[in-house]
Amino acid sequence: MSLSFERLGFAPDFVPYRPALEVQKTVHQQVVAEERANTVLLVEHEPVYTAGRRSSAEEYPADGTEVVEIGRGGKITWHGPGQLVAYPIMRLKTPIDVVKFVRDLEQLVISVVGRFGVEATTVEGRSGAWIPADDRGGDRKISAIGVQVSRRTTMHGIALNCSNDLAPFGDFIPCGISDAGVTSISRELGRNVAPADVVEVMIEEFRRREADLCAVAGIPDNQPPLPWPAVARP
Q1: Which superfamily does 4-213 belong to?
Q2: 64, 119, 166, 196: which has the fewest C-beta neighbours closer than 10 Å?
Q3: Residues identified as active-site
Q4: Whole-model pTM?
Q5: C-alpha Rg value of the chain to the nearest Å
Q6: Is residue 142 part of an annotated ligand binding site?
């Protein structure tokens, strides 16, 4: 069965992080059990910081925004309005190569922003997609990537800055990197490009790379799909 996509919510219906995390966990269990096809969840969150496995409490921002500790790699990052977040929940091929999966996601993001006229690249020793130093400034990160693999199946994924306010990144050291900046598609282009403008392009790039990203799900094409778990809202 081919890759499945689910939009959990976009502006003005921003989605709180914790309920979306519960949906991730439910879908992850279903993909592991081969009850659901490999799936990408797409969402625009309410403001939140997430702390990966290498984070320490001393690094947490003190602006009052919620910090959620999660199992992905990396340190602290921010999610919120104007940022497109994609959670690929995929059964990996064997032998499992998590580094390759992250590199593939980086190339996917580079292709996505490239289709909007933004030239991004990778930086040796650093994950994510980057705009290289130029006359407008030094190296600056446009997308953070962090994944967790459990029972051969991925969680967490991509945060792509589209039109978000970059000020929250000044309240902490993004992903533990102190010698580089942060940017967005809108900032690079000088015009507004919202997550809703980018989501279809991202879906197209995931579909184009499906065979490289994940193993074929062992689900008959004629099997009725499972209902989507509801996003619980306060």
Answers
A1: Bira Bifunctional Protein; Domain 2 (3.30.930.10)
A2: 64
A3: 175
A4: 0.89
A5: 17
A6: no
